[in-house]
Design a protein that fits this description.
Elements: E1 7-11, E2 17-23, E3 40-55, E4 58-65, E5 68-69, E6 86-91, E7 96-101, E8 122-125, H1 127-130, E9 133-137, E10 140-145, H2 149-157, E11 162-170, E12 173-180, E13 184-187, E14 192-203, E15 215-222, E16 227-238, E17 243-263
Antiparallel strand pairs: 1-10, 2-3, 2-9, 3-4, 3-12, 4-6, 5-6, 6-7, 7-8, 10-17, 11-12, 11-17, 13-14, 14-15, 15-16, 16-17
Amino acid sequence: MPDSESNSAVCDFARSAIRWRSDTTKMKPLTMSRPAATTLNNVRMPLECLATVARGGERFEFGLGASCKTENVFVERDVWMAPNADMCAVSGANQFLIIKRWDRADKGVMLHPASLGPQPERQCVDPAAAFETHGLVIRRRLARRLESMETILEVLQGDREVVSRTTFAIDGGAVTVEYPIKTVNYSERHRYYQVDTGPVLFFGEPTGPNLVEHFHLAYVAHLGGDWAEFLVSQPTRLEGHGVSVHHFSKVRRVNAQNSLWVVGGGA
């Protein structure tokens, strides 16, 4: 339902996930940094954020998976790869973006086999070519929109699960970012709340030809009005050190519609 309605089915982030299955006896690996100890591996990566792009009369859903660390799987020791990277994925129905961030940008870690070349920090692959199976699994729960500041403050004082939606215009359409509220500031004396949460997806400049490559990691802040500020991750130069690191350093302010939804019915 659109945000104008008082009830909606929001993403159940605890039960929604990106899933994929790799079987190297059937398909050549495209995304690995090291030889695998097993030939078969399944991954379940829960969602941090759900982004819906509306463009040209169509809707495209993309999920941001939770971050993990690069690892060797099913080993008794030396689990963590060296050099190690933060890793997460952005998945749509037929698009898949792997984001890796090492201790500095342009680290140059090679893929396996090395004939595939250096591993991109943003590696976009066709999931049908990279994995035996792949899916963006979205579960939903009923939620009620919080309409008044009194109701919002009452809910935030409690322990109910709250989800936010932020919608803003893009070229030729709009994107709605839906995410669980993790950190929020509020004051019953001054009658405000301010969302400060992430990571979420920001739809910005593309790094390739696919729609998924518009998405960047970000944090979002808003006071529920007609704007939102995203703090976007980008390679950031360390002054005096001659290197860049991946850091949340670029502010993007957009005109937006924001709403809060309490999961499971009334307050």
